[in-house]
Amino acid sequence: MFKAILIDKQDEGQRVALETLDESRLPEGDVTVRVECSTLNYKDALAITGKGPVVRSFPMVPGIDLAGTVESSTAEAYQPGDSVLLNGWGVGETHWGGLAEKARLDSRWLIPHPTAFSARQSMAIGTAGYTAMLAVIALERQGITPDRGEVLVTGANGGVGSYAIALLSRLGYWVVASTGRLEETAYLESLGAQEVIDRQTLSEPGRPLAKERWAAAIDSVGSHTLANVLAGTRYDGTVVACGLAQGMDLPGSVAPFILRGVTLSGIDSVMRSYADRVEAWQRLGELLASEQLEAIMDTIGLDEAIDKAGELLAGRVRGRVVVDMAG
User: Fold this and answer.
1) 277: CB partners within 8 A, 6+ apart
2) Domain covering 128-266 in this structure, CATH number
3) Cα 205 to Cα 122: distance, rounded to the nearest angstrom
4) CA–CA distances in Å: residue 268 to residues 41, 249, 263
5) Residue 266's beta-bridge partner residues?
6) What residue range is the signal peptide (predicted)?
7) Three-state secondary structure call for residue 218
8) Cα–Cα distance, 130 to 280 (Å, whole number)
9) 207 φ, ψ to 5°?
10) Cα–Cα 20 to 30 A to 223, which of 202, 280, 286, 325?
């Protein structure tokens, strides 16, 4: 028996509860993991509250991240006792996820747990930090070096934004953070932001081209914000898009691409290759210090996750929420 948050469909919507389940209910997979820690991501909060079409089949255990220990395995790559990590692959959407004490998974979705981090620390990083690292790597591959100029990070108070700031700062970039919560300026500066601006300057309809300012940007917001970010990017700059908190639309112009040679690079963290995942986590281990992780994380028990999901969607959560199965 194990505890899990279970989402089930009902005529009037969905039912969400912390339940005790028999292991026989776990889905198919060649590795069974005793989950030590998971996270509460924006996507998980949408699934739990039913405010977004995240869950593709019912019943579903949410949780797109997990870290734990292999209990049993029929896969050659993993043996009982191995520490493993999972991010994405549709877990928590089409396959039971990490907000549970146990998970049964496809071994191809796993990577060995990074030795640089504890389970709690890796989940403080989670998909948010892993996505931020992929975004930074994308900027590097486009030749964006610290001497090129400012790098803008939108959605700065969120998980991806917080980690993007920390990683860029550690690498020597001058970081401008855009946020709707200016009262959190001191927090963003503690992560490494040199300047904090109000998101209102970017979130309304703007011009096809604006004054050139930043050499690059990491955007987790989308819509008008992304269009304005592109419009303000300097010649031969790069913008990495990795989120759509404001919307999926892009109400902008081709002018930044044609007249300024701007590159728009999309980041998908869900289906990335094994090699990309290992590289990203290796870089995270080299760049992130334990005190930074402590500043970003808030640890809760599994029994608190349902209520916390509503707080997250209401914008009352800063940084990362770690769900510790030991309470």
Assistant:
1) 87, 111, 130
2) 3.40.50.720
3) 38
4) 15, 17, 16
5) 241
6) none
7) strand
8) 6
9) -85, 160
10) 280
CATH number of this structure's domain 2-113+290-324: 3.90.180.10
Handedness of CA 26, 31, 35, 38 (dihedral sign): negative
DSSP state of 155: S
- Residue labelled with tokens 């929420």: 321
CA 190 to chain centre: 20
Name the residue ranges covered by the structural domains of the chain.
2-113+290-324, 128-266
Distance CA 250, CA 191 (A): 29
Residue 283 to residue 277: CA distance in whole angstroms: 10
Return d(Cα 233, Cα 147) in angstroms, integer: 15
pLDDT per residue as tens digits for the range 28-39: 999 999 999 999
Residue type at 221 in one-letter notation:
V
The runs of H, that is alpha helices, within 192-272 are 200-203, 223-231, 255-259
Segment 116-129, tens digit of pLDDT:
999 999 999 999 99
The length of the chain is 327
pTM to 2 decimal places:
0.93
Contact call for residues 188 and 156 (beta carbons, < 8 A)? yes
